[in-house]
Every structure is written in C-alpha cells, then in structure tokens.
Amino acid sequence: MDKHVAPVPLEKVYRLLNHGPTVLVSARHGGVDNVMAAAWACALDYNPPKLTIVLDKIAMTRELVEKSGIFAIQVPTVAQLALTYQVGHRSLYDEPGKLSKSGVELFSIDGHDLPFVAGCSAWLACKVVSEPHNQQTYDLFIGEIVGAWSDTRVFKDGHWNFETADPALRSLHYIAGGHFYAIGDPLVVIDA
Q: CA distances (Å), 66 to each of 32, 83, 103, 184, in order?
C-alpha cells in the first residue's frame, strides 16, 4: 500500500462521496478481478455507513458483486482520466485483457479480499446489503461500508483539500459522451 494511504474513520466516510465524483467499482470472484466506472454513486447512511451504486445487468463487475457479496468503490483522479474512461467503455466479457489494456494497477488491503485500484484518492470496502427487488428492477445496490482509506495528500482529517493538493489529484465528474469535469475551486459560505 502507498505511504500516502491512511484509514478514514467510518463516521466520516460519507464525505468521500458527498461531492458527487465518478467512481470506480471493483470486485473479485473465482479468481476473476474487474473494474468499471460508474457515475451514479451516493452516500446513503451514517451508522453503519452505507452507499448506493447503480450496476447495470450487462456489466461483468455486477456479476462478480452478486456472486461475492462484496465490492470496492474508488474515487479516481484527474491523472486517471484515460483509465476511468477505458474501464467504463470496455467489457471484460469482450476483452479478457481489459484491465491491463486500460492501465489498471491493483493492490490489496489486509483483511479485505478485494481488488483496489492504485492511484485513486479514496477507497471504500463494501458488503452488499441484499435488496433483490431494487437490484433486479432498478440495478440499484446498497453497500455497507466496512473499511475506508484516503490519500492524505488530498483527503485528511475528514475533509477534502483539493485547493492545496496537486491538481492531478482532483476528482472526476462525468457528464456524458466522454466529457468529464475536474472538481473546481472551493466556495465557502460563512454564517454571519
């Protein structure tokens, strides 16, 4: 694990997703790893912390999540723009070498049998909260967050610090058709 990766207290993990970034979803089952990009991820609850993610039925990652019952969510950075686009537009069903062709480097975190994507700014280990109706009808999965880590150069002490971090560490926000934005400058409202 990278020297900049540190645990995030579970009571602060919602902040890793609250700014609406595009995320990478990774899963493992039966010796198969996969990573996909997803734009529809949302913090859901505080205690225990939960999130929602939409995983389309055509995605191999969804199949791995359904079989294993666990998945990881990562917040990719501007430096990972091409990687994020590629894992979102390639299918492991069609391209067995999808991850290597997309430039994905995986690493492990002790106590979690998940593939984590190197170079991201945040990582969340999740276990599926089974909601078969939502999963089948809406492709909506609920994950209970059981572990969280951040790159301390950009998220520290429970807060994002994009304004002081290297711009390459900013989060990506997907619009459509290969069009992303990087998170912008902070705007602060002070209560008078």
A: 13, 24, 25, 35
pLDDT tens, per residue, the chain with 192 residues: 678 888 898 988 888 888 889 999 999 999 999 999 999 999 999 999 999 999 999 999 999 999 999 999 999 999 999 999 999 999 999 999 999 999 999 999 999 999 999 999 999 999 999 999 999 999 999 999 999 999 999 999 999 999 999 999 999 999 888 889 999 888 888 876
Residue 9 has φ and ψ, to the nearest 5°, of -60, 135
Q: Name the token pair of 38.
A: 């997803």
Distance separating alpha carbons of residues 181 and 50, to the nearest angstrom: 26
CA distances from 62 to 7, 55, 81, 100, 157 (A): 26, 6, 22, 20, 32
Provide the sign of the torsion angle of the four alpha carbons 136, 140, 146, 152, taken in this order: positive
CA separation (Å) from 154 to 37, 104, 169?
21, 21, 7
